[in-house]
Amino acid sequence: MENQTQITQLVQRAQEALQKAENLKELDTLRINLLGKKGELTGLLRGMGQLSPEERPAFGQMVNQAREKIESMMAGREKELKASELEARLVKEAIDVTLPTDLPRLGNPHPITQVLDSVVECFIGMGFQVVEGPEIELDKYNFELLNIPKNHPARDAQDTFYIDENIVLRTHTSPVQARVMAAQKPPIRVICPGRVFRADEVDATHSPVFHQIEGLVIDKDVTMADLRGTLGAFARQLYGEGITTRFRPSFFPFTEPSTEVDLTCFVCKGKGCRVCKGTGWIEVLGGGMVNPKVLSANGIDPKVYSGFAFGVGLERITLLRYGISDMRWLYEGDERFLRQFS
Ligand code: PHE
To answer: Are residue 80 and residue 131 in the same domain, yes or no?
Structure first.
């Protein structure tokens, strides 16, 4: 009977101690003190030697029951402590997602890039391929293969930076035409965007570094009508329905016949306004039928194939599209200007 009371009291004390344990460390200490090799329960078992043989089995059973009870209480308490420790950590480590932050400000593509992207998209839609060429170019590709021989006065129109006698900063994207013809058999349908260079002073409409997009199509039976249709689709895509093209005779050594291409003024839709200086038209690009001399110089038989080519000034169509009055804005990197295109 005395033994039984001892055990009951032990279990009761254990229960109180477990409730008081505030963390897992304290719980571990309790485990050792109660259930360990030198713990209280083991101590009780040791006292069993003094019992009579008849009393022993019942006592042993009581001790085991007590152990089970304490173990399950301990497991219960352990679960509670773990949960509250986790809870405490979550509260401590929580991030308040509603607080204002110092996120870096997001930029946006440059207006030139945006216009280039839509031009590229438009021509890819018509089955063109995008090809790029080097900015530092051989005189051969920039001039000679385009029917502009050395010392020919036609070179004056495109004064450039010579690196040496045979290497120039390309004055236009047209050398990519020659490179494509050398590398590809017709049918050819490419656009070639890129940076070009000319010895020009900076002003509202000029820069020594600017961008062009070259177009080249070579196949059997390509005519001026194809050039018109293609540029018409391009104009509508870029500036909207109702925009058409007007071709005026012009001259380029590498196209014959050559043309300046105007688009309906997208501001007044052709009625005449300040932007188009009352004409209803805006000059946008140069083009023409690829000169047969250029075809044969680049290994394509002009009796079998014909083609058209054109060159668009990317800055020019960007200024027109957004109604920007001075080209220098495009290069100055002034955020107040650039943010307007986000
Ligand atoms: N390369 C010419 C220029 O820069 C434009 C052009 C390209 C004209 C293709 C005709 C054909 O002025």
So the answer is: no
- Same domain for 86 and 126, yes or no, is no
- Distance from the CA of 176 to the center of ligand 1, in angstroms? 11
Cβ of 245 closer than 6 Å to ligand 1, yes or no, is no
Q: What pLDDT score does 1 carry?
A: 56
Two tokens, residue 317: 């169509």
Q: What is the DSSP letter of 174?
A: T
User: What is the whole-number distance in angstroms between the Cα of residue 287 and the centre of ligand 1?
Assistant: 6
Tell me which residue of 158, 107, 166 sits closest to 138, measured CA to CA: 166
| pLDDT, tens digit (0-9, with 9 covering 90-100), for 19-78 | 888 888 998 998 998 888 888 888 887 877 788 888 888 888 888 888 899 999 999 999
120 and 222 share a domain? yes
Question: Is the model's pLDDT at 321 over the cut of 90?
Answer: no
The CA angle 49-50-56, to the nearest 5 degrees, is: 65
Asked whether residue 252 carries a pLDDT value surpassing 90, the answer given is yes
Percentage of the chain with pLDDT > 70? 100
Residue type at position 135: E
Nearest atom of ligand 1 to the alpha carbon of 290: 11
What is the percentage of the chain residues whose pLDDT exceeds 90?
55
CA angle 263, 269, 272 (to 5 degrees): 90
| Type of residue at 177 | Q
Query: Mean pLDDT throughout 133-159?
Result: 91
Range of the domain at 25: 2-92
Q: Do 160 and 299 share a structural domain?
A: yes
pTM greater than the 0.90 cutoff: no
How many domains, in total, are found in the chain?
Answer: 2
Within a domain: 97? no
Confirm whether 99 is domain-assigned. no
Q: 152 and 195 share a domain?
A: yes
Q: Is residue 314 part of a domain?
A: yes
